[in-house]
Design brief:
5-stranded mixed beta sheet
């Protein structure tokens, strides 16, 4: 099972961790893992390139553990940028919650106020 935990502070999403393999199918054939991986990279690339946010992330290829944090959102003076990037992260959270309807045996999605 892949567990994804989103970090929030004062209502703003500013990061997440992912751990574990989904286990839906064999490596290379696992559509749940592929979807999560693709969405994760979309979030990282969009936050960095499109919004110019400083994204701190680590990806462990062996364990499939991922940590993504954008702590600068918590002190960002530009409200549009802060809410745009946080909204991107929230969109990822919402998409994963939708995926839970069909893949609840393979995903766990949580959020924590930190």
């Amino acid at each position: 099972m892949t567990t994804i935990t989103f970090f929030k502070r004062n209502g703003l999403y500013y990061g997440f961790t992912e751990s574990g393999h989904a286990g839906f199918a064999e490596a290379g054939q696992d559509i749940v893992c592929a979807a999560v991986s693709a969405m994760t990279m979309l979030v990282i690339n969009t936050a960095e390139v499109s919004f110019g946010a400083d994204v701190e992330y680590t990806i462990d290829e062996d364990t499939a553990d991922v940590t993504v944090k954008i702590p600068s959102l918590l002190s960002e003076k530009d409200e549009k940028k802060r809410y745009a990037v946080s909204g991107l992260l929230q969109g990822y959270f919402i998409q994963l919650m939708d995926m839970l309807e069909d893949y609840y045996d393979y995903l766990s999605v949580e959020e924590t106020e930190v």
